[in-house]
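Colleagues,

Please find the record for the three-part complex below.
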Amino acid sequence: MSRADGAAKRCLIVDDSRTIRRIARRILEVRGYAVEEAGNGASALQACRRDMPDAVLLDWNMPIMNGIEFLRALRAEFGPDKPTVLFCTTENEMSFIEQAIEAGAQEYVMKPFDETILIEKFGQVGLA
Amino acid sequence: MDDLLPEFLAETNESLADLDLALVKLERAPDDQATLSLIFRLVHTIKGTCGFLGLPRLEHVAHAAENVLGRVRDGELAATPDVISLVLAALDRIKAIVAALGATGAEPAGDDGPLIAALDRVAKGEAAPDSEAQAASAPVTPPAVDQAGQPAIEPPPAEVAASQTIRVTVDVLEELMTLVGELVLTRNQLLQLSRVQGNTAFSAPLQRLSHITSELQEGVMKTRMQPIGSAWNKLPRLVRDLAQDTGKKIVLEMRGQDTELDRQVLELMRDPLTHMVRNSADHGLEPPAERALAGKPEAGRILLNAYHQGGHIIVEIGDDGRGLDVARIRAKALSRGLASEAELASMSDQQVRAFIFRAGFSTADTVTSISGRGVGMDVVRSNIERIGGTIELASTFGQGSCFTIKIPLTLAIVSALIVQVAGQRFAIPQISVMELVRVGRAGAGQHEAAGLGIEHVGPTPVLRLREHLLPLVSLRSLLRMDAEEGGTTAEEPTVVVTTVGSSLLGIVVDEVFDTEEIVVKPVAPILRHITMFSGNTILGDGSVIMILDPTGVARSAGVSTRSVASDTAADTLPPMSEGSTAMLLFRAASSPSVLAVPLNLVSRLETIAAARIEPAGGGYAIQYRGQLMPLIAMGPEDLPDLGARDTEQPLLVFADGSRSMGMLVGSITDVVHGRLVVELGSARPGFLGTAVIAGKAADVIDTGYWLTTARRDWFAGGENAVRRRVLVVEDSDFFRQMLVPTLSASGYDVVAASSADEALQLRDRDLEIDAIVSDIEMPGMDGLAFARLVRQGGAWSSLPMIALTSRNNARDAEQGRAAGFTDYVQKSQRDALMNSLRHCLAGPALV
Amino acid sequence: MKVDLPVGDTGATIGHSEGPARAYVTMMLDNQLCGVPVLAVRDVLAGQTIARIPLAPPEVAGNLNLRGRIVTAVDLRARLRLPPRPGETTPMSVVTELGSELYALQVDQVSEVVAVDADSIQENPQTLPAIWADHSTGVTRVGEQLMVMLDVERLLSLDAETSV
């Protein structure tokens, strides 16, 4: 499942909670993704510049650089299509979904997500 | 997903610690968007994560709190203290649930309904939060963990940078420390052997091993050090809540947060510190109305201060509250049967105050919900003593209290000087050793032409060391080893000159050996009352020796340990005792009473032949060290019969830089240690007043007066006819009394003011002066504010201003200069002050 | 010098004691047989170099080095205000731990380890001199002799008694 065989998709998990990163990592690793993590938008952007992932699972409320800011910077720098971005949000913040889609997210996922939901969402954007 | 729980707990505990601080900050600055975002985000993250882990109680409470915070963030709700209180109540609930989660692995049962309802009402803007805060916090069923005791999960240190740090259990560090301690001892043993064997093939690798051991030791020590600030984190929140509950206004000031100490010691200090701050807030500080009546600012102050001193850490907890009511303590001690009426009658106020450290004694008449948790000062004291520390209390009724905690660096490894007395060895921490002086034994009172000798002033041995008279203590007699085998006192004993606080003390020992790295081990509890020892250790040869504590030695000897500038809260909070001063007692033919002068003003004691005195410049002088030294006679009776060839004349020599003056006295009778409390008001010029010293009344001479008299005579008509006038602004009576004569002696006219306000009144009365010397830390208007005001305008606006401070760091100095001070001098540095004044007054700006 | 003790055969076997039997280290103090629970004893020493401590209370004989740990030696004769040990005899020490500190209790002679049936321990008899009774948790018979069970904690709480 290394990159060399071309099969493993790479996903960057961006969330300020170590716990949530770990939860998402497990779900994705079981499904054969190569996972990287970032704790805020700024380090996520650096990770993308270093080595562009196929997908980004993006929280919005983070220190230093939040999810929307990251997304805008990412699209500005690398164009609208790659990587695929899944935006995480909670029921309190429906208005952010709109903002996120405008800023260039392909799909959103509500927290808390479980394996079924997350994989389903990944499938919808052609990443499963 | 069970193994996610520890991760979640660690993360959440970090967030909760940050949240407490942030919320207290927000309350002070409700518009601080950055703080608000941080708070919102942390709560949001907690809530978001709970959802994944199936923690419904936490999730619901966090969610409700998040709603309220969201409204505040969006500017729809003001961050009033009541709103903050409600959010804090929610955080407390979260903490309790998290703690139980840590202990049991599951959320405890409980009803968060009322709390969530209150949060929701506030979020919807339906209810005035005022009553809600109460409703929410009052009927809360205490979560199970509160009864169960300590939460099992210790909050990890904040700010964990993922890649730079790793978590290591404390046990590992403890084990490492023990091993390194043993390694050091073994290394020392090897070095000892190698010294005996001489140069062998082992010598070089052994040196390397020794070096590596030292570095390893240092490294391991570092892993155990934590800033004391980490034990203070929770205090702003605590004080904030207390202020809220009691309706008081409280300013908590923390200094020296970065002072590092062993984490084990830190852990043990955490609870006592918290308790004492709680006490200060609850019992110490008065409500605003009462403070206003007493003429104090409405907001009470609690000051925490930590710093290193001579191998110890000093932590001070002071407040400017009502102070301890000695009368009430007496009454209570009596009613509790702790002491009889007769015993109490014979006790000093200080002894009476010490009752608060006795078991079962609580000064508050009613046990309040804040302090009355069954923990008294007795528990605080025993906790501190358990780690080999001491606690002292200073308090002035009506003005405040200050506790001073001194904790030894137990378990620490220090470099120590090994000395011997009566055949037994002791260690003196190298950090407090200034120099070693080998002395011959001179007969009492006998003058030695050359070399150093121990002299006696009355019964007190002193050593003339350069410009100072150094008080000496014999370790042999102090440790009551006179009768020991180990023979008579050495022919040529050594004086170990040690710094104690800011003064010097000479400890006389028989012999001095090498310095050695020692592992400080605390003494057994049954020996802790012997304050002269700070620990014990095992030397390279396996023998067990005691480590001397110079401060304890000084105290046992009755020598002042706080005579000059102490870098403590003492300078900023009023109720400090000034400590004791060494006073030289003498007689003069012109005075029927015993006379006294602070010993540290006297630079030498001399005995001269009366025949050497010659008339000069309208007065008298002698040839002294290649110069003509003017002599002062307080009255004509004090002049000896100049013709009498063999009359011996005792002199007190006062020195100022390169110039000296001698005062003719009849006889020097004694040096005593005690508090100098001069009852001012002496009408006689040349005398400050009468003081009771060692149980007897003595007239304290005004050295400034006599020295200027001599100088005036001496330089009559000379070039120094224009006398500069210096204003001294200093709140401490003690420092004022020290400064005024010192400056007078150097030829200045001195005017003293005890506060900035008093000084400004002098300005408004058109007092003409040439320079200002001002303290920085003063109650009311401080020195910085005073300087700014002076610079703003008026007759004094361009005068040189010299700041006096007890601290010495570049930042303070910069602040001083920014406020308008010309120069910045440490209080204890008399010469620096003189140089600075000379320098400032030589400037062209002045007439 | 470390001392190995003989195990007396006065009762149940040590180590497999069933029920209430407990092992005690027995020792002599001014011709009185005393005992300390074997579980409280870390070591038995003889012929140790003891460094005197100036200003220490008279009960504290000094410090000694036990494999790199500092042990405070307490002379039980002085502690119990018994007459001083005759000059020609050297004391032996029973090392015990209290609150993570090690103490060496100096006695005249350490004898053996005996098992004592818990049921045989009685309260201090009225006739027991006060100085013993104050520092004892009870007495029992060992052979023909009355053994005083020493209360180690009380013996080592010098602080409380000297300061009050």
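The domain at 4-148 of chain B is CATH 1.20.120.160 (Four Helix Bundle (Hemerythrin (Met), subunit A)).

Comments are welcome before we finalize the supplementary table.
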